[in-house]
Amino acid sequence: MAEQQPLVLLVDDEEDLCTLMQMSLSRMGIRTHIAHRLSEARQCLTEHQYDACLTDLNLPDGNGLQLLQWMNEHCPSLPVAVLTAYGNMEIAIAALKAGAFDFVSKPINPKHLEQLLQKALNKPIPSTTPQEDTLEYKMLIGQSLPIQQLRVTLKKIARSQAPVFITGESGTGKEVVANLVHRLSNRNEGPFIAINCGAIPSDLMESELFGHKKGSFTGATQDKQGLIQSAHGGSLFLDEIAELPLSMQVKLLRAVQEKRIRPVGADHEIDVDFRIISASHQDLDGLVQQGRFRQDLFFRIHVMDLELPPLRERGNDILLLAQHFIQKICSEWDIKAKALTERAQDFLLNQYYPGNVRELRNIIERAITLSDTESIDLPHLQSAPLRRSAPVLDHTDISQAITTASVTNMPLKKLPEEGLEPYLENIEKEILLNALNMTHWNRTLAAKKLGMSFRSLRYRLKKFGLDTDEE
What we know:
- Residues 140-369 form the Sigma-54 factor interaction domain.
- It holds the Pfam family AAA_lid_14.
- Keywords: ATP-binding, DNA-binding, Nucleotide-binding, Phosphoprotein, Transcription, Transcription regulation.
- This is Response regulator.
- The chain is an alpha/beta fold and 471 residues long.
- The protein has 21 helices and 18 strands.
- It has a 5-stranded parallel sheet with strand order 2-1-3-6-7, sandwiched between helices. Strands 9-12-15-8-16 form a 5-stranded parallel sheet. It has a two-stranded antiparallel sheet with strand order 4-5.
């Protein structure tokens, strides 16, 4: 028995356009129903089971946004694409935020229409694997509320073709989340191309992104495919997009809107089909106000927003991630997995982590290196110069800080388990780290704050393994 052809609903009041789209889709083996009014579309959706829907934004008795709202209530899993007039990007973006799968600009390019419907009809197969074995649980480790909410949002975002913008502090895992958006989407069989915009020299930016033809400039000895074209059929991740020069922002905007690029030295444009995912730790809104980032590109990439939580706000996820890194690193090094002592766990839970997940991995890797036993204890973790959040201390408050630390860290009438010398050394190290953090690791200023000579400070830093140029 032959497989049944997919059925698509076309909603537009232009009869000629509907006929043209119907003919194009018929050649693709797709059956169609046509509705010219909002009321007709609702009736069709009530009476029939569709695989996708294409709707114009302007209808005689309403608009496409009203149809989207109705469909979100009655058939939320049905992919909907909107048809929009050229240049009417604000309404198209509003439709994407309202739940549209994607949009097509008029006049309709048959090739773009075909690519869009292929993506719409390529629905991900519902997973039957246990929840903990799914991609979103394997790649996003943690059980905190922010991470649980992020998983739910990611699954919704992955169903659409809308641009995604990811914000978060450095080291929170923006590329991991971008890759997860790609792998959960119906583009997962296509390439995932990740680019750090801050790592490409400005004079090579256009050639790297858009490609070039042989002889287009000195040194162009052969044709080169650009990274955007490499993402054809998949997803393009632009990390630190705020680093793009304004001249490149103009070209990127056209590539995102028109899905066409022109390599350097080429005579004609090339069609490209990609989903853009971008990220930055900078305030793009502020950069727009300063004239350093184009407002039109800002609105075009800010359709679906994801904000990643800093590690310090994820509670016990810190320990889950630490265990994950221990297992991963020990497996890579072909050594027996080590266990975190209770003191080590308490220590990790009380750090500030300005470098977030990336910093935690570095701490664990260093601790594994230093540990000669089957466990990771406090001294293995304290050897790293951790940047922690701590109250500012003046050198006149040192004696008070020691008293406070003693009361805080050791219950009354109880001697320190590690002995007096290690206990006092921990307090001294805590104060040194506090002074260094306060002065952004300017050793001269730290020595002045602590009321000691630079040589004396240097001696103490060497003593605790803190005399390093690592930042």
